[in-house]
Every structure is written in C-alpha cells, then in structure tokens.
From TrEMBL:
Protein name: Rhomboid family intramembrane serine protease
Assigned keywords, A-Z: Hydrolase, Membrane, Protease, Transmembrane, Transmembrane helix
Pfam short name (any one): Rhomboid
Family label: Belongs to the peptidase S54 family.
Transmembrane segments: 55-79, 91-112, 163-185, 197-218, 224-244
SUPFAM superfamilies named in the record: Rhomboid-like
UniProt superkingdom: Bacteria
Lipid bilayer topology: Multi-pass membrane protein
Example GO BP: proteolysis
InterPro entries: Peptidase_S54_rhomboid_dom, Rhomboid-like_sf, Rhomboid_protease_S54
Assigned GO CC terms: membrane
Peptidase S54 rhomboid domain span: 51-109, 154-243
Lineage, top ranks: Bacteria, Pseudomonadati, Bacteroidota, Flavobacteriia, Flavobacteriales
Statement: the UniProt record of this protein carries the keyword Protease: yes
C-alpha cells in the first residue's frame, strides 16, 4: 500500500485519500442516522436545501462503493498521467475547474427545470412554501429521496425530486480527466475489462462522452445518474486542455 501511494503524484494521492476518508465518514455517519449525503450533496440553486459550501463538498461524496471505485480508479490511472505531464499545480487547477464546471452545468439546467415546475404548480393553485414543508417531512435520509414518492401526482413528484435530490460524486471532474487524457494520449492503447479488448484512448473517450450526451437528452425518472455533470466536466476539460495545448504539437 505504501509503495502504491508513494508512486502516485501528490495531487492525485491527496484527492484519492480525501475521497476515501469522506466515503468512510459518510458510511459510518449514515449508519448512525446522520444524513451526511443530504447535508454535503449539491442541490439546485433554487432548492431550499442548497448551501454554498455544497459546491465543493458534493464532489467528495459518493453514492456507493462502485461509484467511488470507478471514479478513484479513473482518477489514479488517467489523472496520474496528466499530473506527471502538467505538474501538480496545473493538474489541481484542471481538476477543480472541471469539477466546478460540471456542477454548474448540471445545476443551471436543474434550476431551469425546477423553475418551470414551480410556475406550473403556482398556476395550479399550490402554495410552494406549504408544499416545501410537506416535502421536508418526507425526507428519509436516504439518497433514494423519498419513501412514499409513488403516492404523489406527477407534477409534485417531479418537484420533490428536483429540489430534494442531491448530486454527489467526482464523476464530472473524472470525465474532464478522461477527456484530458484522451486529448494528450490519443493513441495510447487501453485494455477494457468488459469486453477484454484493447482500444485507443481517443475512441474510448469519444464513446463515453457520446453516451453522456445521449443520456443527457433522455428523460428517465429511474435514472439517478447526473449525466449533465459528466458532460459538463468533459466540455470544460476539453476547453482547458485545448487552450493549454494549442501551441504544442506533442501527443502520445
């Protein structure tokens, strides 16, 4: 373990440790009844549960073991390569900028959607303040949002989900890292696990971003993955690496 951590560049190593520590705190805290995900996850800006600190805390939170496993695996594998090329300072700027960019794209779109629902509810005669109080009474402390959500009408259900479902995870920043790696190392061959075939980085990144774009335009109530955050991180990551590399011709 010491050798593995010792061989990691410093920013990747500290990000990995911080994410793991926060995941352990979340796991232990929620086992004792503390709604850590609800406190530190990021809500849309017009949610009564939004707090400014969530802009940072949300990307150190993860939903489950496989969520953090994928993100940290990608961070270590692809982020280490970028940090070795750019150095710690530039990589840290890149990581944080893509994380913020992912959050803002996801939340701005969420804000617009929630505002549209609010207008419809007001037109239908609902008092938003009373409705928010009722929604608050249904919060169960689980990331699955509500325990009786199926018993409400569609518009109220959409509003409940919109204001009370926090976005968590480093996936937006990780997609930025993937795009950065694909841009700098386009011809590097990677071995997939499922199926176990080699693929060049530029094709893998194109496929993953394409999936994020496709899913961003779907409306699937059962899908709690923040595809817009993935897309936002990818877009910001591409812009940054393009600006930094536009006068250079060195690719790998």
């Amino acid at each position: 373990m010491n050798n593995i951590l010792g061989n990691m560049p410093p920013v990747v190593k500290n990000l990995l440790l911080l994410n793991v520590v926060m995941f352990i705190i979340k796991f232990l805290g929620e086992a004792q009844g503390f709604p850590i995900t609800y406190l530190l996850g990021g809500y849309v800006f017009n949610s009564p549960y939004f707090e400014p600190y969530q802009i940072v805390t949300h990307f150190f939170m993860h939903g489950d073991f496989f969520h953090i496993l994928f993100n940290m695996f990608a961070l270590v594998i692809f982020g280490s390569a970028l940090e070795q090329v750019w150095g710690p300072k530039r990589f840290f700027i890149f990581y944080m900028t893509t994380a913020f960019g992912a959050f803002f794209l996801h939340q701005i779109v969420g804000y617009i959607e929630v505002k549209h629902i609010e207008d419809q509810l007001v037109s239908a005669g609902y008092d938003l303040f009373i409705l928010q109080e009722k929604i608050a009474s249904l919060r169960s402390g689980s990331i699955d949002t509500f325990n009786i959500i199926a018993n409400t009408n569609g518009l109220v259900q959409d509003y409940m989900v919109g204001i009370s479902t926090p976005v968590v995870g480093a996936s937006g920043a990780v997609y930025g890292v993937l795009v950065g790696f694909g841009y700098l190392f386009p011809n590097t061959r990677l071995m997939l696990l499922f199926p176990p075939i080699p693929i060049k980085a530029k094709y893998l990144v194109t496929i993953m971003v394409g999936i994020a774009v496709y899913n961003s335009f779907l409306s699937n109530p059962g899908d709690n993955i923040a595809h817009l955050a993935h897309l936002g991180g990818a877009i910001v990551g591409f812009i940054l690496v393009w600006i930094w590399q536009k006068d250079k011709k060195r690719f790998y």
